[in-house]
Structures are given as C-alpha cells and as structure tokens.
Amino acid sequence: MKAEKVWRLGSMGDMQILPGSRHRPPMKKPMWIIVLVLFVCVFLICAYIYPPQSSSACYVFSSKGCKGFVDWLPPMPAREYTDEEIASRVVIKDILNSPAIVSKNSKVAFMFLSPGSLPFERLWDKFFQGHEGKFSVYVHASKTKPVHVSRYFVNRDIRSDQVIWGKISMVDAERRLLANALQDTDNQQFVLLSDSCVPLYDFDYIYNYLMYTNISFVDCFKDPGPHGNGRYSDRMLPEVEVKDFRKGAQWFAMKRQHAIIVMADNLYYSKFRSYCQPGLEGKNCIADEHYLPTFFQMVDPGGIANWSLTHVDWSERKWHPKSYRAQDVTYELLKNITV
C-alpha cells in the first residue's frame, strides 16, 4: 500500500515539475510554401492573360514552344455578339461566300478623289488610249467643278460633296465613288486615286495584275504608338476592340466583293463616324486612315494584302506625305519606286 502511495505521490510530484500548461506548443507555419504557391498562381495567371511572344520565353513554359503552353490552358471565353453584329456578320459572310460575278468584259474602275480639276489628266489620257472597254472613270470633285481636257473624263463626274481632311467626309466620298462604280456590273476592280497620282506602269500591266488576283490591296498594319492605337476610343466597344484597331493609307485597289461589303456596312462605319475624328477626347483620329484597315481586319483579314499599290513617302514624318516637284522626278526615283 505504501508503495502504491509512494508511486502516486511520485506521479503527482512528476506532474508538478512539468510546465504549467498541458497544451502542445504551436507549430511554426511553413510560410515559404504559402509564398511559393501564391507566386506560382500569380505567374500562371499573368502568363495566361499576357502570353509570351518571344521563342525563348515560350520554351520556358514548354519544349514545344508557345503553342504547347497555350493548348494546355483553357480557351478564352468568346465575347457575345450584339444583335446588330450578328446581322452584319451574316450579311458580310454571305457576300464573301457567294461566287464572284463573271463578266465577259471585266473592267477596272479608276476613281479619282480630287478637290477640282485633275492636273495630270493629259497623262491619264495617254495611259487609257487604245484600251477602251477595259476601264471606267469616276471623278469626285469636292470643291470646284473640274474642267476636263480628256474625252475619257468628260461626263464622268459624280455627285460630290464637301470633303474635310481628317474627318469622316473623306470616307463618305470613298463610299460615294464605290456606289457609283458598282452600278456597272462589268467593273470588277476598284482603284482609289488622288489628283496627284500618276501611273508608273502601262495599262496592260496594271489591268492584268489586278484581274489575276483574288485579294484586295488595302494598307493595314498595327501601330502601337500615339498616332495608331493611341487614337482608339473605348466608346467603339463592344463592336470595335483595340486589338483589331489598324492603320493604313487610304488609297486602295479593291475587288468587287469587298467593295460590296464596304457599301453594306453600317455598323462599324457608324462607330468611326461618331468616335474617330480630330479633337475628340483630346485625340486626332483620322477616319480614312483607320476605318477600312480595321473593318477588313475584323471581317476578312486573309482577303487583303496589307499593303497598297500606291506609292506614298512618309519619310518626312509630317501630317501629309512627301510631295515630288519637277526637279525631284528622275529616272533613279522612278526606278526605286517601281522595283
């Protein structure tokens, strides 16, 4: 009995020399694991939203490059189109998928956008001579009634309206020219020209070059600077997104199907009419430099060449391209332009 009592007393004594609390001391949290997991999550989210563009960065993610990494990620949710977008895209898709009209007498429509008389009309007269039946001429004179010296230009003036540089009226004039030229079902190619344009090749070369192509020559490129994407307005959303906003010279050579969808478009055109103009929101958006490039980027990017057949020199970095004077026009200049 004493032994048992001693044992109990000993037990009680042992308990008295232990720490006062019987609770297990808190374990140190593995903070480095939490930080690592958070870092990986943030890294993957950023890589999903801003995928790497360079090949070296791509191989960090996968030995197959960017494509392997992108395929591993879930697809981005598609934006829901508005009723107007659905209707517009249905019409455009139907026009593009329709077989082209075959004409026994295919013609090129030369459409001149000019403030008045054409200073190089006599040169164009020489260019057209002997090729009657293969071309049509249309003149949009926005300021004064032109005086014509060539029989090919007589009675070829269309109803014109005032054109103000940088404003949507420039696009309106282009569409007015297209509408008039489309009335002739033989017109298969539509070339927009200014009063300063001159032909650099003979008629047969240009005619065959245009007739034997299945694309349109619309200048189109992405400019991330202030005079490109910097002109974009969020008010164009949701139909026109900044990722589709493009820039290009206004001069084009366009096949008939593309000319028709330009005339059929009202949705995207109305966005540029309202939100692409000089001085809006402190920006100088020039509609004729952005409407057609952006429009084709959205509806038929594979159907255009992304460059124009018209030579324009912007090397002086001014609001307008370089003007060539008589002393500038040399054999070397013409050779460099046409090569």
Automatic annotation (TrEMBL):
Transmembrane segments annotated in the record for this chain: 31-50
Keyword Nuclease found: no
GO molecular function annotations of the record: glycosyltransferase activity
One Pfam family matching this protein: Branch
Main localization (coarse): membrane
InterPro entries xref list: BC10-like, Glyco_trans_14
Keywords: Glycoprotein, Glycosyltransferase, Membrane, Transferase, Transmembrane, Transmembrane helix
GO CC list: membrane
Membrane topology of this protein: Single-pass type II membrane protein
Subcellular location: Membrane
Protein name according to UniProt: Glycosyltransferase BC10
Source species: Glycine soja (Wild soybean)
